[in-house]
Amino acid sequence: MTRAVLLRSAPALLVLLAALAGPWLAPHPVDEPVTAPFAEPGAQHVLGADALGRDVLSRVLTGGRDLLAAAAAVAVVVTGLAALLAALGAVRPRVRAVVEHVGDFLILIPSVLAILVIGTSFPGAGRLPVVLAAIVLGVPFAVRVASAAAGPLGSAGFVEVARARGDRPLAVACGEILPNLRTTLLALLGLRFVDAVYVVATAGFLQVGVQPPAPDWAVMIRENAEGILLNPWAVAAPGAAIAVLAVSTHVAFDLLLPQARNRTVSRL
Amino acid sequence: MTPALDIRDLAIRTAEGRELTRCGRLTAEPGAVVGVSGASGAGKTTLLRSAVGALPEGAWPEGSVRVHGDDVLALAPARLRRLRSSGVGFVGQDPAARLNPRMPVRRLLAETGDPAAVHDSLAELGISAFLHRRPGQLSGGQQRRVALARALLRDAGLLLLDEPTAGLDKELRARLADLLRGRAEQRGTAIVLACHDQDFLAGVADEVLHLGEPVETAGAGRPPARSAGAAEPLGDAGTSGSAESEARRPAPVQIATAPPGPERADGEKPAVEPDSSVHIGGTPVLEARGLSAWADARRRTGILHELDLRLEAGSALAITGPSGAGKTTLVRTIAGLHERASGELRLNGCELPVPGRRRTDRQRSAVQLVPQDPLTTLNPSRTVAGSLRRALRSRDRGAITGLLESVGLPAETAERYPHELSGGQRQRVAIARALAAGPQVLLCDEITSALDAGTAEDVLALLSALCREKHLALVLISHETPLLARRTDRALTLHRGRATTTGRTHEVLV
Amino acid sequence: MAERVSARPPAAVLGRAVLWRAGLLVLRRAGLLLVLLAAVFLLVDLLPGDAARSTLDANASAGEVAARRARLGLDRPWFERFAHWLGGLCTGDLGVSARGRPVWEVVGPHLPNTLLLGGIVLALTAVAALGLGGLAVLRPGGRLDRAIDSGATVLLALPEFVLGTGLVVVFAFYSDLLPAVTTTSTGGGVHDAGMLVLPALALALPQIGWNTRIVRTALTEQLRAPHVDAAVLDGLPRRRVLLHHLLPGAVPPIATGLATSAGLVLGGAVTVETLFNYPGLGSVLTDALQNRDGPTVAGVVALAGLIITSTLVPADLLGRWARRFA
């Protein structure tokens, strides 16, 4: 199982490494034009140039770090909060009911709309509003997934023993239930990361939280779309980076969630 | 003439090699009725299902199963479907669940057979009155008849029935027998039925095949006594441990022979009241008065009704009763784990709050419960040492080792995880955890039900020793009367949440 | 042993109970929608910037601003304004935008475009997901099943704008079927059907991935049901088993999945409309946000909430109805 997960996440890990090491590997300066706008790929510029003549390769190598950092932050916080709320909800049903209602409420607002509204309301704060909004919006759904695994544990014998011993609900949630959710939480982390990449990248595409001339992958796609016929790499390269990262991570972590596993049943 | 069903040298095993069923030879000629009997777990259902080409997940077959001459286990999917729809009729166990709840009977029947032929079957089975109803609106017997009609409709050459008599009274069984015989004689249908009712088989079958126990391979991971426990009282093929199969007969038989109330054959005092003539001396360690418990917060479903109880130090009390009588709820309430309860509890004469949360630490430690299934009561992500540490509230290595020794476990057990231990070892760890708190009352709920005879004996010997040494009040819930008779002084029988008999063990549990 | 037939309450009582439960479902969703509208209203209210100020000249006097605020009704207490706005919603009057035009005038012409796009996407999604999910379950664990599952897993991870640009690259370079849409050219109204192809694909593919998995899981769950086993062992044709035995039980999760997709499509439509310069709600929203046009933003979010609620309620009801005999 671990080998399959690692194998499937290899492309994502490569992209991750490239994005982290990118700024040092970039051959050309990121902000200055080095050739004609939308110049075709050549010896000097492997991926050609973008709308302002800047080297696409260099911008792609530097354009991932912030995006990935923001997405990682969102994923970690959401998973952590979801784990806590799910474990607590297994011990105290009222918590779970409240979270259910909040989830049903948030489903009425498409996340993109919410990010858009919140992001443009606080223009000076960079990515922070987007990150915070993504966390708030992502938690209820993540709690549902985690609750599916934590729920049955709530009535398990050892939880009962702990409660009868007088342990407080929070202590029971953290001490008894959480350690048994490891695989689910790991899967959740990966899938939340994919979702966070989606939200942060989409926000970037809509120029919320980050604007040109920042070398962000999503921003690049937006700015260079008009020259797609001249140098498609200016759009295809950052697009491929996002796609590979999202797909590879998703395909890998999907293996860890129980319901995703292929279970053989009787044939029709 | 080709036999309708011809099974030779069949063995079906799981991927791990465990044998599910084995059959040397079974032949059903057209017009014959063959019965298959055997203990539950012998593989009757697996055998029948193999005759329709349905093997359990991941199972490997050996040998051949031929239906109307075709090897069913090797047929292509399309041909198999054709065979199933016109060559074989199969009626599985639990027919109620096997009917699509959304379809009216009319459609259920039309699905498998010719609508015109529907009428004949209906007349035979008497279900024409409720063609428009859905399965949810039918009684159990009616559902069975619909399921049977579905199989009979297509007039297949082979009819397979899995436990068709379950839940039917004598009259209906007789009618079924007539129906089957009629089919076999008049239409030449070959019928194979799996049934544990020997009388029924004697009346309807031409020959009966008896399935032996599947061979248990070493290291199958299941305690060997399971086969004894699974033996049916009638037609029991298992010769091993017949005494234990006696013991596992449920207690209701005892209830019927031990009448409540003052009439006792040997003229002793009425045994319903708390038995003051038997107590060993001094105040009872635990006393309960008017204990009642409910299943829901609104107190609509009562589980226990006004129970009284006395536990003495150094003595052992047995609690028996049919399943659902409330035995587990009783001990859980005493242990403080069942919140929806009321009544008076006294520990050493002092008031003991019913909900566990309201008890003091000392009170909580004094009353400990060893639950039935240690696998769910030991945190799977924690080592034995971890669980014991929490119970001891100290990290003292020596204390942990000492505790393990007192239950007869080696010190290395401390580093293992629950799933790495055997059933008996887990049960001992659970006992150790209960002992860690230094209790005065130890409540044990069916702790030997998942253990084989030898391990169960060891565990109970341990408990008796501890009970004597530490002067504990011990409570044992079990179905196994001989066991209880040996190990307890007094017994309490529960029936529907009320105590029906109390008194000395050898009087209550014969 | 006498046979006991399970008693069925008279039809009238049954009907009333069913209506009551259905009513509660609708009420709950409506209640949540109300909370959403209130939250949106409040949030927009708190936005820095003021509709009155932005519609006047920069050097307008305080008195003029005050007068304008009074005229736009911005000085009345929060509850009153909210109630007034809610009332207007029912008649289609979404209030007045910061620019002074009725919000409905701004939003109205673009709404049908988005609804058209969304409708096509949902229809595509439903057909494809049901078809692929059904195919996958014909032979569980087989090659087709695993291929469909893997394909769906890949599709659902892709952001719409990445997929959209990828599609443009493919269509521009590897075929001559280049629709007259890039981010620089504008389309007029949606008169040219070709304009819908790429946006619809970009939106539909991830949703097809998501819903195919839901359909497949729901059908596979149903495979375990004893009555399905009975149908299979009775040799019923596969299509019959699929449609009459598997599908009915799988309806609740599939319906909820599709309804949730409506919300996801609305969100994705914002990006796709921006990418393809499609004249829908997305462009209205981005403009309104840039101009700090609170009422218009509130109007768009309210509409979105309304649309999503109106897909969730039928899904809930359908789910209840599908479970009526189980």
Description:
- The complex is a heterotrimer of chains A (268), B (510) and C (326).
- Chain A has 11 helices and no strands.
- In chain A, 67% of the residues lie in helices and 0% in strands.
- Chain B is of the alpha/beta class.
- In chain B, the strands form 4 sheets. In chain B, strands 15-16-17-12-18-19 form a 6-stranded mixed sheet, with helices on both faces. Chain B has a 5-stranded parallel sheet with strand order 6-7-8-3-9, sandwiched between helices.
- Chain C has 326 residues and is mainly α.
- Chain C folds into 2 domains: 12-107, no CATH class; 109-324, MetI-like (MetI-like fold, Orthogonal Bundle).
- In chain C, helix 6 (111-138) packs antiparallel against helix 11 (238-276) and helix 8 packs across helix 11.
- Chains A and C meet through helix 4, helix 5, helix 9, helix 10 and helix 11 of A and helix 1, helix 7, helix 8, helix 9 and helix 10 of C.
Quick summary:
Chain A has 268 residues and is an all-alpha fold. Chain A has eleven helices and no strands.
pLDDT below 50 for ≥5 consecutive residues: which ranges of chain C?
A: 1-7, 182-188
How many E-type strands of chain A? 0
| Proportion in helices of chain C | over 70%
Order of secondary-structure elements of chain C: HHHHHHHHHHHHH
Net shape of chain C: flat
Terminal CA distance of chain A reads: 28 Å
Compute the gyration radius of chain C: what is it? 25 Å
Helix content of chain A: 55-70%
Number of continuous helical runs of chain A? 11
The largest pleated sheet of chain A is described as: none
Query: What is the count of helical runs of chain C?
Result: 13
Number of strands of chain C: 0
Q: Between the first and last Cα atoms of chain C, what is the distance in angstroms?
A: 27 Å
Order of helices and strands of chain A: HHHHHHHHHHH
Structural class of chain C: mainly alpha
What kind of assembly state do the chains in view correspond to?
Answer: heterotrimer
